Amino acid sequence: ELENRINGDIVIVPQANPIGLSQFPNAQLQGRFDVSSGINFNRDHAKIDLKDRESLLDKLETKPATEQLKNNLLYLALGADIIIDLHCDYESILYAYICKEFWPDANDFAKSLDLGAVFIADGHSSAFEEAVVHAFRHDDNKNPPRRFVSTLELRGQSDVDEKLARSDAQKLFDFLIGRGVVAGHYQAGEKWKGTVTPLDHIEVIKTPVAGTILFNRVLNEEVKEGDLLAKIISKPGQEDGIHEVFAPQDGIIVTRTFNRFAARGDQLYKMTCNGPTKTDRAPGALES
């Protein structure tokens, strides 16, 4: 800004969810759900036509705090052409959710960020970025600007240090230079050739029982169908007390839980695969 290089408007929301950041039940941060209502902060965003953007602010002061937060964020996003929602997973590589209409145009984003994987969303969930995409799909403008919407998963929750943050910030800056939002020179080079996977080809591996988790695989590791992924110790010392979890098909480990004790049905891994998931998955988000 001091160098007068900003060609567009850049809005940074450093804390998009102040309600979640204020919740510490039992001295543990709970930012995903509202502790009083159980509402998921990243689901059930309003799906509206872009022309109805102003309706998000109608009688906003009469609505619950969670809805005020969601509507304000969506209203802000619908005034932009590029929206990047910064998240993180449990333990994970650097990856992004991108709706199908933005791919492969968003290859420049994947290249700039040096993503480990791209998940192609189907647009059927009520997550924040898909609510934005819904409004863009329902735009009366027959010649809309070049747009881009993504949820960027900045690795895992413990991947926090200044050097990494500066590197990621520079990569985001390079992307904005490439899109002309910021004046400057950035040479992207060859196209990004990483893993691009539709949500229907992502296996969400869950534990069949409650117990202590012993992992057998690490992030970014390639596995084959039938490979041992983890052992769950449910009844220590008993003959039937260890349950083994196997890969349902060939794939690559993208995420892993940071917990080492799981309830039945808790997520262990997410894997990108070449074939459709072998477990039932409704259209929409991978997880609640």
Write up what this structure looks like.
This protein is α+β, with helices and mostly antiparallel strands and 288 residues long. The protein has two domains: 18-193, Zn peptidases (Aminopeptidase, 3-Layer(aba) Sandwich), CATH 3.40.630.10; 200-272, RNA polymerase II/Efflux pump adaptor protein, barrel-sandwich hybrid domain (OB fold (Dihydrolipoamide Acetyltransferase, E2P)), CATH 2.40.50.100. It has helices at 18-21, 65-77, 107-113, 128-137, 162-178; strands at residues 82-89, 91-92, 95-99, 117-121, 148-156, 195-198, 202-206, 211-215, 222-223, 228-233, 242-246, 251-256, 261-262, 267-272. The strands form three sheets. Strands 1-5-3-4-6 form a five-stranded mixed sheet, covered by helices on one side. Strands 2, 7, 9, 12 and 14 form a five-stranded antiparallel sheet that branches. The model has no long low-confidence stretch (mean pLDDT 95).
